[in-house]
Amino acid sequence: MKKIMLIGKIGSGKTTLIQAIKNFPLKYIKTQVIHYIDEFIDVPGEYLENRSLYRAIVITAAQADIICLVADATSSDNGFPEGFASMFINKAVGIVTKSDKKGANTERAIAYLKQAGVKKIVMTSAYYRQGIEEVIGMLEKA
Ligand SMILES: Nc1nc2c(ncn2[C@@H]2O[C@H](COP(=O)(O)OP(=O)(O)OP(=O)(O)O)[C@@H](O)[C@H]2O)c(=O)[nH]1
Ligand SMILES: [Mg+2]
Fold first, then answer.
1. How big is the chain by its Cα radius of gyration, in Å?
2. pLDDT value of residue 61
3. Average pLDDT over every residue of 100-121
4. How far is the CA of 39 from the centre of ligand 1 (A)?
5. Whether the model pTM is above 0.70
6. Residues spanned by the domain of 21
7. H/E/C letters for each residue in the chain?
8. CATH code for the domain in which residue 39 is found
9. What is the residue with the minimal CA distance to atom 4 of ligand 1?
10. Whose CA is closest to 47, among 33, 37, 68, 36?
11. Distances (CA, A) of 113 to 2, 24, 128
12. Which of 59, 77, 80, 112 is deepest in the core (most CB within 10 A)?
């Protein structure tokens, strides 16, 4: 089974997305440490928000086959530096979250992900299960 690592800012929706993909009930649980859940490696947003922890992200990525950069459609803050995806030798894909939410700007999130260096991007709402099957398909093909 392919290993998938999720990276995104604090509260961007990584854990919720995993719950939606796995058909678990959606429940808020703050990710405190790098969490291994079946094929997923759920990285707390703090790792992206502190540049001193980038090395830890890269080291952890060695265990993954696919890197998912997760961008919150409601956040005006771009957590990814330009070309961030090139830090990894792994395939990187992008996922936009919270497309259902008031104030969501999916175009902005897509632009951030493209700037980070991903080409394939899927828009999702975990709450409405939008794009979830598409994400599963993208991960299977990647
Ligand atoms: N409206 C809406 N809210 C969402 C969606 N996905 C996640 N959320 C909410 O966003 C908040 C943060 O989601 P998490 O999945 O915990 O975020 P995370 O990226 O795992 O955050 P860290 O563990 O802190 O890195 C929660 O309150 C979720 O319910 C979505 O698709 N739609
Ligand atoms: Mg989390």
1. 13
2. 97
3. 98
4. 19
5. yes
6. 4-141
7. CCCEEEEECCCCCHHHHHHHHCCCCCCCCCCCCCEEECCEEECCCHHHHCHHHHHHHHHHHCCCCEEEEEEECCCCCCCCCCCHHHHCCCEEEEEEECCCCCCCCHHHHHHHHHHHCCCCEEECECCCCECHHHHHHHHHHC
8. 3.40.50.300
9. 98
10. 33
11. 22, 27, 22
12. 112
Q: Provide mean pLDDT across the span 10-25.
A: 98
pLDDT at 1 over 80: no
Residue with tokens 């993208």, as numbered in its chain: 138
User: How many Å lie between the centroid of ligand 2 and the Cα of residue 112?
Assistant: 20
Taking the alpha carbons at both ends of the chain, their separation in whole angstroms is: 12
- Tell me, in angstroms, the distance from the centre of ligand 1 to residue 14's CA: 6
Rounded Cα distance between 142 and 129, Å, is 21
Domain count, the chain: 1
